[in-house]
Amino acid sequence: MRTPVSASMSLFLAALLVAACASGSPAQTAPSAATSTTTATAVPSGEVSPSGTAGPFSATDIAWLQLTVAMNERLLPVLDMVPSRTTDPAWRTFAARLAAAHRADLGTARRLLAESGAPATNPHEGHDMPGMVTEQELTALRSVTGVAFQRLVGQHVRAHLQQAVRIATAEQRSGVYAATTALATEVVRVGGTELARLDRLDRPPRA
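Given the sequence above, the corresponding structure tokens read:
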């Protein structure tokens, strides 16, 4: 079971997801009351924001980068399990390509956070939020192989990609710092492509 998201985490999520909460979305969203209290204004270069960060990053930019780091750190161990849990070449290729893209995005997000002056500690660390694989789910993945593993890992990867695209779309709409919104654009592009590939992997073979 996923642990409740703290009030501060709800504020982070509200700022990011308010532009992306489509009807029928399977993701959990922050309370609407939190949305009205969270703003994402640009911080002029050289000035200090209320959160103590300096530079042309907005609160939304920083919150999205922090959440992206946390989500990618959770997914990579799952993708790294694929070669030892299945012999399916298509799944191995899919996982290797996706892991490479996520490692690249993780490096970029960490670099941008350092440029922003945000604290080195991630406020999302230790929280189980939408799109993140929990320790219990990792344990379940380690206990299966073959088709059963592929089925489970496909569910987790799909949830991650859907949530990543959702919040990256919100960053595209509401972000300020060019390099951060450019990363969000890449996340949306890759996420959509990989979701389509995952659809083909999950499709049962024709008789």
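The domain at 7-202 is CATH 1.20.1260.10 (Ferritin). Try to locate this feature in the token string yourself.
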